[in-house]
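User: quick one, fold this
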Amino acid sequence: MGYPNVAALATQPAITAPIGTLAETDANGGDLWSWSPTGSPAGKVTTPGNGGVWSYHDSNAVTALMNVRASIFAGGAKLDGQVVTDGAIVLGSFKLANASNPYTAADVGKSIKVAGAGAGGIDLVTTISAFGSAGSITLAAAAGTGVSGAQVVWGTDDGPAIQAAFVALANTGVAPLFDYGICVVATPVGAGNPSHLTIWGTPSVTICQMLTGAGNTGAFYWVQTYGAAQAITSINTPGTRVVQTFGAFALGARIFVTDSTSSIGSAYTVVNAVAAGGGNFNLTLDRPVNTQFAIGGLVYPLASYPQNVTIRGYGMRFTGTSQGNVEGYIGFGAAYRCFVYDVVADGSMGAISVGAFAFNLDKGSVESSYANCRVDGASIFSGHEFIACERCESRQCQTSNCGSGYLFADSFDCAVFHCDGYSNINDIVWGSDLVGSAVGSTRCNVTGGNFEGSTYGANFAYGSSYNTITATDWSYTSSAGVFIQNNNGPCVGNQLQGVTITGSGGNGVFVSGNGHQLTCANLTVARSASDGVNVSGNTCRVTVDGYTSIDCGISGGHGAMLINGTSDVILKRGTFQNTVPFGGSGYWEAIVPQGGCTLSVDDVVFAMTAAAVAANNGIAFQATDVS
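Assistant:
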């Protein structure tokens, strides 16, 4: 039906006389209401008292009551997806059979996904080319793998209708509403970056993507576009606001600064001043660029980018399949103040490809966030990903079964607040989008939250520095609660404050490599299979002020602390206990300094069954107030 006169909706005058009464008729959470007397109001009008706007919902005069909202059905979306679990197809065949007889002739042309029937056992994504019977249809592509008892999802590709709705309603103050049903998206939504838009969902809506191909895309994916780049002609100083380029930019231009391969970037900035000199141009920006870029790096003007887009899902679910380098379910590139609330992503109708992300804030995003979102990842590479972002965050979210729960690459001043994670490979990762980089992420914070069953709890890599973890609990990590690794540069200035690590299958805190700096305050590590704190590297500096170690080394490790290498470790206010018999070596050592390290210990209490300190290899050991 479309959205006639949509630009005038937000400015309709209030009605002063009663125009009818409402009765809620929808029991599935879709916000559907009926109108009395029979029929809908003529046109779209503003109702008295609440500022809401009526729009037609269907020919039966069922309407959607909205605070300036318009049903997605009015724009032509069908949300007619169906799911069965008895699909059978033979390798190389185009014929799909279902004993449940779910098909009709109207299904021809619809998009379809057959679980596991693609090449190598991936999902087969194609269309229905012919109707044979209620139990048999012909697909446009042959099965790459024979399957039986397979999940089959099919429906109208609503992508084009949703895209048209987003474009029509952008900048109008009218919000598209996803009422109910399974919405199949085989054509990505978000092209052209429709902005100043709020999207509403309900718990009765499932967005099932069926995407193939490559590139920065997903079911809902806003991707920035660029103008012509100018080369960087002088190495910039990180933390300053000046970048020198070969060509000029207009005042007020939003720019994205990146390396010569466009692999590492900074959050977008705004040009405040341009000064010519020596054949080059000095750009003064609205805020500092925190990464150093070499001569030959590139500065791109943003031609379009998403801004002020909000998705209020209220339990709306994203699921489905992608193949190739499809990025994920919801994503924004170079976003400004874009927000996603109360959305669920899972693998209930297929999983996105390995290397993809459920929720993504891509290169250059600023002041954008996810809140109260949940990801059950299956093969998802990352639940939440932040690439070259600044002041972006996840708040009160949950991730499980992901490669990384929350991944920050080349980002600055980003945060995870009171989020949880379960059975991820990495719960938190600070790193870089470029393998071999020494840039990493800086001044990012994790506050609160509980994480359980991961391989690594928090993983610092690629020179990530000055990040902080506060009041966070990790339990039953298989390798380490906190892991600092030496990938192409030391990680310095990082802090743990009030962190508790329980039941690690390896080390509680593992500092591996050279030159790292870590400060811990009020750290508790209990029942770590190996060491409570393990510093294995040279020229590291680790300070622990307030350390409680309980039964660490229970599977043959050393105990509360192992220092192996020419590092400097300062330990203040510690309590080291062992209360159970240990396996492995059969004895417990509270602190094991070796390899040429320097250790300073002050105000530490030991309660143990065997040797407290094993000093060797010419260690400089300083201890006061030790009992």
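User: anything notable?
Assistant: Helices lie at 159-169.
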